[in-house]
C-alpha cells in the first residue's frame, strides 16, 4: 500500500486518540476569532471527507467548539468501503464515484453512500473485497471494495 500522507490539524479532545475517525465539516462561526483556526482548519482538509487520527501530539488548546478543549493530531484520509459496479472494480484503478442507488430508505444505502465519499469524487480502488449480492433492490454486477480518495 502507498505511504499515506498525513495532515496536522486540531480535533476535540474526545476524538484525539489513534484510530478515531471523523468527517470534516468545515469551520464553525466560533472559529473565526480563534488563534489556532488556521491549523484546525488546515487548507489540506476537505469538507465531507473522512479522516482517521494516526497520531496525537501533546499540545492542548482551549476551544469554543469542543468541550474539554482540543489537541493537535496527525490525520490521514480513511479507506472507505463501498459498493460499485463490477466494471469499475479493478485493484489500483482510478474511478469517478457515482452511487449505485439513491433510495435513502434502502437497507443497503450505507454501502452506496458511505460517510466521506463524494459523488463524482475521484478514488483509487485499493482492494476488491468480493461480490455484493445483498442489494435489496436486486441490482446485479456489484462489488464491495475499499477505496481511497485520489490525492489532489
In short:
The chain has 152 residues and is mainly beta.
Verbal overview:
A hairpin with an 8-residue loop joins β3 and β4. The protein has helices at 37-40, 109-112, and strands at 7-12, 21-23, 50-61, 70-77, 80-85, 94-96, 122-131, 142-149. The chain has 152 residues and is mainly beta. The chain has two domains: 7-77, no CATH class; 80-149, no CATH class. A four-stranded antiparallel beta sheet has the order 1-4-3-2, with no helix packed on it. A four-stranded antiparallel beta sheet has the order 5-8-7-6. It contains two helices and eight strands.
Provide the fold topology.
Elements: E1 7-12, E2 21-23, H1 37-40, E3 50-61, E4 70-77, E5 80-85, E6 94-96, H2 109-112, E7 122-131, E8 142-149
Antiparallel strand pairs: 1-4, 2-3, 3-4, 5-8, 6-7, 7-8
Pfam families: UPF0179 (PF03684)
Protein name: UPF0179 protein Mlab_1307
Family: Belongs to the UPF0179 family.
Amino acid at each position: 500500500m502507498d505511504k499515506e500522507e498525513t495532515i496536522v490539524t486540531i480535533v476535540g479532545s474526545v476524538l484525539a486518540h489513534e484510530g478515531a475517525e471523523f468527517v470534516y465539516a468545515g469551520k464553525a462561526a466560533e472559529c473565526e476569532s480563534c488563534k489556532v483556526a488556521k491549523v484546525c482548519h488546515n487548507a489540506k482538509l476537505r469538507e465531507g471527507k473522512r479522516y482517521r487520527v494516526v497520531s496525537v501530539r501533546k499540545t492542548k488548546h482551549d476551544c469554543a467548539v469542543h468541550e474539554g478543549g482540543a489537541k493537535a493530531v496527525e490525520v490521514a484520509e480513511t479507506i472507505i468501503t463501498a459498493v460499485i459496479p463490477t466494471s469499475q472494480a479493478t485493484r489500483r484503478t482510478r474511478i469517478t464515484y457515482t452511487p449505485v442507488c439513491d433510495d435513502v430508505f434502502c437497507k443497503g444505502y450505507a454501502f452506496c453512500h458511505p460517510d466521506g465519499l463524494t459523488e463524482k469524487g475521484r478514488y483509487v480502488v485499493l482492494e476488491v473485497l468480493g461480490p455484493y449480492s445483498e442489494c435489496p433492490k436486486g441490482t446485479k454486477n456489484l462489488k464491495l471494495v475499499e477505496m481511497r480518495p485520489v490525492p489532489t
